[in-house]
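Fresh eyes needed here. I'd like your take on this protein's tokenised backbone:
***
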Amino acid sequence: MINPFIFGKSVTGDKFINRKKELQEISAHLVRGQNVILYSPRRYGKTSLIKTVLKKLKKQNLEVFYLDLYRISSLQEFYRTYANLIVSQVQSPVKKLFSLILSLLPSLKPKLVYEQPDMPTVEIDIQLPTLKQSATLKELFDAIEEYLYKRNKRGCVVFDEFQEILSVDNGEKLEREMRSAFQHHKSVSYAFLGSKYHLMHGLFKDKNRPFYNFGVHYPLFGILKEDWTPYILRQFRKGGYSVEKMVCEKIMEITKGHPYYTQLFCSELWELFLHNKNLKEDCIYKTLDVVLQKEDHAFSEIWDGLRGRERQVLDAIVQEEHASVFSKEFITRYQFGTPSAIQRAVAGLIEKNLIDKIEGVFYIVNDPLFEQWLKKN
């Protein structure tokens, strides 16, 4: 049997682990026209979740559009990618599609290109000076709404890694024009996904930003132990391994239900004991050593990039189950001196996306394997 544990890419179907509550709630929000702001650290399964949501919405006869902003760095690139998304999703014969695109995006001036006889495609090209006109961006952002309204349909648009809009040239203009258009749309709901909490919080919680409270906030956490355990046991036992529930509990202690790291850890465990399929507690610690050794270079680079006080605060957070870093007790216990010194260190760690604030008070390391590496070192 091939190793069934997959990590490093989005998954659907039987590889998608539970998330029944999240799947139901997010789908319900989007179906009724409510915008959703979904955020968590990277590799927590946001993309897998939203793609499963979109499959569910398609079965309910909604049109779905998905755009990943991770590698988009300019206004021109954004426009071209978004326009191509619209063209690729609209189901219509090419010549009718050509007329439709002209009606939806008159500034676009698309061209019919015949790369093969009788098989034309639509080619999009637009220059930056035209893009800087608000009317052109309004055309783009109203296009899906207009298309769906004319067909008496509903749809959903997903922007993955939405915080990357902050690094796009003319990003502030893009942000304003998007918000200005989206707020009037009745046929489209929007989902904004992000992996950098402090940036997403700034985009959607700052009263001075265009997208202030533009949707329901939905933080995504690790998958629960009771959901992981039957899946892990089933996969190992199908592969002929002898494995007890206690092994799953030990894995959960290490990975804290983190989707990427749980799959990675189980995959490594599978390979290490492929010829001795009797999994016991000591197998977990051997696997942890191997995994941390493989991640050592990456984690060392992160550590080397930290300032002295950032290292001290990070070490202290690792030692506390839930660290209230600005409390008098915490400052005294770790001899940090003044609260201002901690504030600068905490701000730096948040900026580097290494810690998260939970329950409005406590701070945790958001990468469970990095936390294990810190403890070991």
